[in-house]
TrEMBL record:
One of its GO terms (molecular function) is calcium ion binding. GO terms for cellular component: membrane. It is a single-pass type I membrane protein. This is Protein kinase domain-containing protein. It comes from Nelumbo nucifera (Sacred lotus). Residues 239-470 form the Protein kinase domain.
Length: 470
């Protein structure tokens, strides 16, 4: 089977569809004693495995499965979780027949009934605005659409109701508050009217969505200063190239000087990249909840420009990457400096994982995201990929984000994000800067810690507190 071809020749692989009404199945792996075929199949795959899976999942994951065929250690120690779909129904009665006998009707409150398409019987589903188990009496619970911006059409204030929600505008503005409606218009009080509608700069930059999100996080709004476009243009001399501190996949960072003579760093996202809006909002929300001496401080943002702008404290001595990867130049960082930078970085990550109101997973720890001040103090930066972590969960499933080389392999293969993903990236960072320096016993201690933290199985890695204590 080739990674782009889901059909099999029968030698080295095979597949078949599952017929309807099947209630049991049996799998058997066997290699026939045919030397020609044996040599051929051995060249194709060193591992044999069989599984039942959902057709759509198999179609989209065929290249991934094909590339794993010779990864014996990973298949044995980690494995692959394969989803299946159980096609079932409450048999022998239609919805109409079942509903006529309430004592025998299986659907709970806030549900609807649908006749089975696979033989006689029926299925229960939660009505729109509810989710849960439709077969329990109170199994379908109200969905709070206001908790997730993608689940509602509000541009400003979202209010949840039973089975639905409604939108409104903040004080001082008017309209229906909806993206598919009139949006919100700020009332004029001696200033030009700012219309907030689909396509407006404030909406494009997530301004009202950001306001809504910050309002739901205690203390968020009071710590974020809103800068005007004119202020930041003056600060960077109209985005002059001489003010550029760095450029990357997410945009450009400029050095700026505010009217009060403060030096700041101004991050400008890429033009036309809508995914940057979500990262912009995410980074603001994350950083308004953090106060740590080794984590970059967000001073404010600008919502008037075509692309979002974030304003940070200025950290004067570049990135750790620039110091340890200088071309043909010896780094000025001593062993003691590097050891202290590692300790300061681990203390920042331990704080994110265990000392904030909700745990925060950074997801992109690398040397380019560790800033250094004049005394080589470490400052962790770039929270665009970070995630708030529910207190009652040890892992969440999410789209894989991060930088190859630093990326946790278990997270990459399973999409299961845990705090141990940061632990892996941290130790890759340590390995990249502790090279051929220090006393033998110190190097040995760092190497032993790295070995534990780089374990393929996340559950066998120490926590960041454990790394910090080591």
């Amino acid at each position: 089977m080739q990674s782009t071809d889901l059909s099999c020749s029968g030698i080295g692989c095979c597949q078949t569809a599952i017929p309807n009404h099947l209630d049991t199945f049996f799998l058997k792996l066997q290699m026939y004693d045919n030397r020609t075929n044996y040599a051929y199949t051995w060249n194709i795959s060193k591992c044999s495995y069989a599984f039942l899976s959902d057709q759509s999942w198999f179609t989209s994951n065929a290249p991934y499965l094909w590339n794993l065929r010779n990864e014996k250690e990973y298949l044995v120690n980690v494995g692959v979780r394969v989803p299946i779909v159980l096609d079932w129904a409450i048999r022998n009665k239609t919805c109409e027949e079942a509903q006529s006998d309430k004592a025998d009707y299986s659907c709970g409150e806030n549900t609807y009934c649908s006749n089975s398409t696979n033989g006689p019987g029926y299925l229960c589903y939660c009505v729109d605005g509810y989710q849960g188990n439709p077969y329990l009496s109170n199994g379908c619970q109200d969905v709070n659409e206001c908790e997730d911006p993608k689940s509602n059409l509000c541009v400003a204030i979202c209010t949840n109701t039973k089975g639905s929600y409604y939108c409104s505008c903040p004080r001082g503005s008017y309209g229906d508050g909806r993206r598919d409606g009139s949006g919100c218009t700020v009332k004029s009080e001696g200033f030009p009217v700012m219309k907030v509608s689909l396509g407006g700069l404030l909406l494009q930059n997530g301004g009202l969505l950001l306001q809504q999100q910050l309002s739901s996080h205690e203390g968020g709004l009071e710590f974020v200063k809103i800068y005007s476009e004119k202020e930041l243009e003056l600060a960077t001399n109209n985005n002059n190239e001489s003010c550029i501190l760095g450029q990357g996949g997410q945009g450009t960072v400029y050095k700026g000087i505010l009217p009060d003579h403060r030096i700041v760093a101004i991050k400008k996202s890429k033009i036309g990249d809508k995914s940057q809006i979500e990262q912009f909002i995410n980074e603001v929300i994350i950083l308004t909840q953090i106060n740590h001496r080794h984590i970059v401080k967000l001073l404010g943002c600008c919502l008037e420009t075509e692309v979002p702008l974030l304003v940070y404290e200025y950290v004067s001595n570049g990135t750790l990457s620039q110091h340890i990867h200088k071309n043909n130049r010896i780094s000025v960082l001593s062993w003691d400096d590097r050891l202290r930078i590692a300790t300061e970085t681990s203390s920042a990550l331990a704080y994110l994982h265990s000392a904030t109101s909700l745990p925060i997973i950074h997801r992109d720890i690398k040397s380019a995201n560790i800033l250094l001040d004049d005394s080589f103090t470490a400052i962790v930066s770039d929270f665009g990929a970070s995630r708030l972590f529910p207190m009652d969960q040890t892992q969440i499933t999410t789209l894989v984000r991060g930088t190859f080389g630093y990326l946790d392999p278990e997270y990459f293969h399973t999409s299961k994000l845990t705090e141990k993903s940061d632990v892996y990236s941290f130790e890759v960072l340590i390995n990249s800067q502790f090279v051929d320096e220090g006393k033998t016993e110190q190097i040995t201690a760092v190497a032993n810690l790295a070995k534990r933290c780089l374990n393929v199985r996340g559950e066998e890695r120490p926590t960041m507190r454990g790394c910090n204590g080591a």
